[in-house]
Design a protein that fits this description.
Layout lengths: L1 E4 L17 E7 L9 E8 L5 E5 L9 H9 L2 E3 L2 H10 L7 E3 H8 L10 H9 L11 H4 L3 H9 L4 H15 L2 H20 L1 E3 L1 H29 L24 H11 L4 E4 L2 E4 L3 H4 L8 H16 L15 E2 L2 E3 L8 E3 L10 H4 L2 E2 L4 E8 L2 H10 L2 H9 L4 H14 L11 H15 L4 H8 L3 H14 L1 H17 L1 E3 L7 E3 L3 H16 L6 H44 L7 E6 L2 E7 L3 H19 L7 E6 L5
Parallel strand pairs: 1-4, 2-5, 5-6
Antiparallel strand pairs: 2-3, 3-4, 7-10, 7-13, 8-9, 11-12, 14-18, 14-19, 15-16, 17-18
Helix pairs in contact: 2-8, 3-7, 4-7, 8-22, 9-12, 14-20, 14-22, 16-17, 16-19, 18-19, 20-22, 21-22, 22-23
C-alpha cells in the first residue's frame, strides 16, 4: 500500500514506524549535491514491505516534522547507498543512529570481483526475484511527483529489508559480519565528511596558479633550449634578429613529438599495455632512464610544473561548491583493498607542495587538527607477519626504519656490518626504503630492476638479501601465497575478517586442472595456456601480499573515523567540529580554536586505540598537529 503525504497533518499516519523493527528509507532529489539541490520526496517503508509512505518534500518541510527526525534517529534504518541519502538528511538536521546499507553489503560480498551489479534493481532481482523499472529515474526532477513517479519512489523502499535479510544469510556463510558492522558504522562518518567539505582559499590558489604558470614557462624554455642546442634537426631559424629566444619545430606539449625526440636519443619508450607493446613517455617510465639521458630530468621537471597548471590551476576551482564555498569530494567507500577513494576533486592526490597545501584552510575562528599514522603499512606488515626484527626495531629502535632495513640488507650482501643513516650511505638507505615497499607489494626482480637501473640478477640479490634479513616475513609471504591459490580469496585479518575474492578464479582453477591432466597424460600443455595460468597465478600472489596490508590499514582508519564521529555526535558537536578529509593514513578535522587541544587528544586516542584493535605486537603512533592549513 502506498500513501502520499502532502500535508503536515498527515505525518501522524506513519507514527507506527516508531515501533517497527526497522524502517526502509530512500530519497528522490533534483540532483546529487545536497548543498545546491533539493529534496523532492522522502520515502519511508515498513519493515515487512506492506506499506510505503511517500512524503512530498515540496509540500511538507521535512525539517519541521519532529516525528521524521525521531523515527530516523531512533529506529534502525535500511538504505541502498546510504551515503547519498544521508547527505540530504543532514541538510534537514537529521543524523540517523543505526544504518544498514544493502549497497555496501553487496560491495562487501563481492569485493574483488569485476562482474557484479550493485544497483538496487539488480540486487532486488538477485535476492527477491523482483523486477524494478529504472527508466524514469533521469526525468524525476523535471516530472515531479506524478503517479508513476510516486510508484517508482515507493518501490525503492519496498524490498530493502528482504534484500538485507537474504544478504545477511550470505554474509553469515562467508563470515563477514564484522566487516558489515564496521562499514555500516563508517558510512555515517564518511557521509558527514562529504557533507562538511574542506575550505579552500581561492584567492591564494589563484596566486599560486600565476606562479606555477611562470614556472611552467621557464621549465618549457629549458626543454626547448636543450633540444635546440643538442638536436639541430629540430632547430627553427630565428626570424627575429633582435631576439635571443631559441625555437624548435616540434611542440613540447605534444606526446607524439616528444616520443619521436626520445626515440631519436635512443630511449626505449616501449611499455606493455594489456599484453601489447605501446609507446609511453609518462614520468613513471622515463624515470627509469633519468641518469642516462640529460634531457629526461629537464623534461620531467617541465611535466611536473605543467601538471600543477593543468590539474591544480584555475580549472580546479570548478570543484568549489557554490552553496558552501568548500570542496565536497565524492568518496567511494570500498575498493578491492578495502580502502576508500576520492573524486571530484581527488583529495588523495593533492601535491605535498607547501604553497598548495596552504590553500586548504579552516574557517575564521577555527583551526585544523591533522593526524596521520607513523609508518602505518610497514608496522601493519611487521605485526601481521610477527616479524621479530621489525618488531624489536619498532619497540626499541631510533625510528628510522629505512636505515635499519638498508643496514641489514647490505650487511647481508657484503658479509660485514654496514652502517646506514640519513647522512651515512644515504644512497643505500634510499634503496632500502624503495625495496621494502616494493617487496611488500609482491614486486619481482623484473620490476625492481627498473627502479634502480640495475640488472635483473642484481635486483634478485637485493630481494634475497631483504628476505634473508627478515626470515619471519619470508615465511608469512609464502603462507599468504599458498592460501590465495588454494581458496581463491584473501582473508585480510582476524579482526574484521574481510574477504577479497580473486577475479576469474574459476578460470584459474580450470586451467590448473587442465594443465595437470595434460602433464599426467605425458603431454605438454599449450604455451598460451601456461602463460595465462602463470600470469593469473602471479597476480593472485601479488594481491595476497598487497591486499591485507592495505585492508588492515584502511580498516583501522575507518574504525578511528567511527570513534571520532561518535564523539562528535555524543557531545552535540555536529557542525561545530567537522571531519574534512580521510586520506589513506591521515585524518583531518576542523574545530573552533578553543577546542583544538581537546579534539587533538580525542583524535589521537581514536586512531591509536583503533590501531591496537588490529595490531597485537606493534604500536602505531598518530601524533596530531594543530595547524592553520593542511600540513603534510
Amino acid at each position: 500500500m502506498i500513501k502520499l503525504i502532502t500535508e503536515k497533518e498527515q505525518t501522524s499516519l506513519f507514527k507506527g514506524l516508531l515501533q517497527d523493527e526497522c524502517v526502509q528509507v530512500d530519497t528522490e532529489t533534483t540532483g546529487f549535491d545536497p548543498h545546491t539541490k533539493e529534496l523532492l520526496s522522502l520515502q519511508l517503508g515498513t519493515s515487512d514491505g506492506t506499506c510505503q509512505y511517500v512524503i512530498d518534500a515540496k509540500e511538507v518541510n521535512i525539517s519541521e516534522i519532529p516525528l521524521i527526525k525521531e523515527i530516523l534517529e531512533t529506529v534502525p534504518s535500511i538504505y541502498h547507498n546510504a551515503k547519498f541519502d544521508l547527505g540530504f538528511l543532514h541538510k534537514h538536521g537529521i543524523y540517523p543512529k543505526e544504518v544498514m546499507d544493502t549497497f555496501l553489503n553487496e560491495c562487501i560480498i563481492t569485493t574483488g570481483l569485476s562482474q557484479r551489479s550493485l544497483g538496487l534493481d539488480a540486487v532486488a532481482f538477485k535476492y527477491c526475484d523482483a523486477v524494478m523499472t529504472k527508466d524514469i529515474r533521469g526525468n524525476i526532477h523535471r516530472e515531479g511527483l506524478t503517479p508513476r513517479v510516486i510508484r517508482y519512489a515507493a518501490d525503492d523502499v519496498k524490498f530493502l529489508k528482504a534484500i538485507y535479510d537474504s544478504q545477511m544469510e550470505k554474509v553469515a556463510e562467508l563470515g563477514l559480519e564484522r566487516t558489515i558492522s564496521l562499514e555500516s558504522q563508517y558510512v555515517r562518518a564518511l557521509a558527514y565528511t562529504e557533507f562538511c567539505g574542506f575550505k579552500l582559499d581561492t584567492e591564494k590558489w589563484l596566486q599560486n596558479d600565476a606562479n606555477h604558470q611562470e614556472q611552467e614557462k621557464e621549465a618549457e624554455r629549458a626543454v626547448v633550449n636543450w633540444i635546440f642546442d643538442n638536436l639541430p634537426q629540430y632547430r627553427e631559424p630565428q626570424l627575429d634578429l633582435f631576439s635571443e629566444d631559441k625555437s624548435v619545430s616540434i611542440k613540447i606539449t605534444s606526446t607524439k613529438d616528444m616520443t619521436e625526440v626520445f626515440k631519436g636519443l635512443g630511449v626505449d619508450t616501449t611499455v606493455m599495455f594489456r599484453g601489447k607493446p605501446k609507446d609511453s613517455i609518462e614520468s613513471k617510465h622515463l624515470k627509469k632512464f633519468k641518469n642516462e639521458y640529460p634531457l629526461i630530468p629537464i623534461y620531467l621537471k617541465y611535466m611536473e610544473k605543467r601538471k600543477l597548471v593543468t590539474t591544480y590551476g584555475e580549472s580546479f576551482l570548478k570543484h568549489v561548491n557554490k552553496g558552501t564555498g568548500r570542496l565536497h569530494s565524492n568518496f567511494w567507500q570500498i575498493l578491492n583493498t578495502g580502502r576508500i577513494s576520492s573524486s571530484d576533486p581527488n583529495l588523495q592526490n593533492i601535491p605535498s607542495d607547501e604553497n598548495i597545501r596552504k590553500c586548504f584552510v579552516a574557517d575564521e575562528g577555527n583551526t585544523l587538527v591533522v593526524a596521520d599514522y607513523s609508518a602505518q603499512e610497514t608496522r601493519v606488515l611487521a605485526d601481521m607477519a610477527n616479524e621479530r626484527n621489525y618488531i624489536e626495531f619498532f619497540k626499541n629502535g631510533d625510528g628510522d626504519s629505512h636505515s635499519m632495513v638498508a643496514s641489514r640488507m647490505f650487511s647481508e650482501i657484503e658479509g660485514k656490518p654496514v652502517k646506514v643513516s640519513k647522512t651515512e650511505n644515504s644512497d643505500k638507505r634510499q634503496i632500502g626504503k624503495i625495496l621494502s615497499f616494493q617487496i611488500a607489494y609482491g614486486a619481482s626482480a623484473w620490476s625492481v630492476k627498473d627502479s634502480f637501473g640495475i640488472t635483473e640478477k642484481e635486483a634478485q640479490k637485493f630481494i634475497d638479501a631483504y628476505l634473508d634479513s627478515f626470515p619471519d616475513l619470508k615465511k608469512y609471504f609464502e603462507k599468504r601465497k599458498k592460501e590465495v591459490i588454494t581458496y581463491g580469496h584473501v582473508t585480510t585479518d582476524e579482526v574484521s575478517k574481510r574477504k577479497i575474492f580473486m577475479d576469474n578464479f574459476d578460470r584459474f582453477s580450470e586451467l590448473r586442472d587442465t594443465i595437470k591432466d595434460i602433464y599426467d597424460n605425458g603431454s605438454i600443455p599449450d604455451r598460451g595456456m601456461t602463460r595465462e595460468y602463470y600470469t593469473m597465478k602471479g597476480k593472485y600472489e601479488r594481491n595476497s601480499l598487497n591486499y591485507p596490508i592495505q585492508s588492515v590499514s584502511a580498516s583501522m582508519m575507518k574504525l578511528a573515523g567511527v570513534k571520532v564521529f561518535n564523539h562528535i555526535m555524543q557531545n552535540n558537536l555536529i557542525g561545530k567540529v567537522k571531519i574534512v578529509s580521510f586520506i589513506h593514513d591521515e585524518m583531518c578535522i576542523e574545530c573552533p580554536t578553543e577546542l583544538a587541544s581537546e579534539m587533538a587528544n580525542m583524535v589521537q586516542e581514536a586512531m591509536e586505540s583503533s590501531a591496537r584493535a588490529f595490531c597485537n605486537h606493534v604500536e602505531i603512533p598518530a601524533i596530531p598537529n594543530i595547524t592553520q592549513y593542511w600540513e603534510k
